[in-house]
Design goal:
- By secondary structure, this protein is an all-alpha fold.
- The protein folds into 2 domains: about 60 residues, Orthogonal Bundle (Arc Repressor Mutant, subunit A), CATH 1.10.10; about 120 residues, Tetracycline Repressor, domain 2, CATH 1.10.357.10.
- It is built from 9 helices and no strands.
- The longest helix has about 35 residues.
- It is globular and about 65 Å long.
- The termini are far apart.
């Protein structure tokens, strides 16, 4: 049975409206994250989000009834976009890629919002838990890359992987956030190379249990 042109046009109009609604929702969620980054959770208002998104606040309330629901939805949407992916098969390339992504995220408005939720106290601890869950998932993805590197013998099996990651992320955080400095590609590559040299299977580090030679 041949589909009638009128019915096909109705389906196309419906699909078009749904696509527009999805784009509008994404725009509102991004506006919510931006307002959160520019103020804090306590100072954030639905009116401010509506103004930044260019919509009526009733449009927001139809989908999200409270500020907490709106921010929660924004963070959930953000978590789907911030992924490190799987290992490329080369640890140095993986660490450089992760470093580029962390650098871009930390200086982004989404990254600043995430750090606000982790640092500031506010009446919705669940939001801080969501932010912590996002960071934990990122950590697990990078941890999987590091464990794959151990299996390929790019890292020694006795390497403290979590400590290695803390050193890498800590160096990036110190420069980008605490000192508000840029981290160019050359600096990022030097950070990675220092970690690779220190943690590689051929490293020669002093043993803390080594005996002090006796004087003769």
């Amino acid at each position: 049975m041949r589909e009638r042109p009128g019915a096909r046009r109705a389906v196309e109009r419906l699909a078009g409206r749904r696509a527009q609604e999805k784009l509008r929702e994404e725009h509102i969620l991004r506006a919510a994250i931006e307002v959160l980054a520019l103020t804090d959770y306590g100072g954030m208002t639905i009116d401010a989000v509506a103004a930044r998104a260019g919509v009526n606040k009733t449009t927001i309330y139809r989908k999200w009834q409270t500020k907490a629901e709106l921010v929660r939805a924004g963070l959930t949407s953000l978590s789907e976009r911030v992924r490190f992916g799987i290992s490329s098969g080369d640890l140095r390339s993986d660490l450089l890629r992760v470093g580029h992504q962390i650098r871009a995220f930390v200086v982004s408005i989404e990254g600043r919002s995430l750090m606000r939720l982790r640092i500031l106290e506010h009446p919705e601890p669940e939001l801080a838990e969501i932010a912590a869950d996002l960071q934990e998932r990122q950590r697990r993805e990078v941890l999987a890359m590091m464990e794959a590197a151990v299996a390929r013998k790019e890292l020694g099996r006795d390497v403290d992987i979590l400590l290695l990651l803390d050193m890498y992320w800590g160096a990036l955080y110190a420069r980008l956030v605490m000192r508000n400095e840029e981290v160019d590609d050359a600096t990022l590559a030097r950070m990675v190379d220092v970690l690779m040299i220190a943690a590689g299977p051929a490293r020669r580090l002093p043993r803390s249990t080594a005996r002090t030679p006796r004087r003769t």
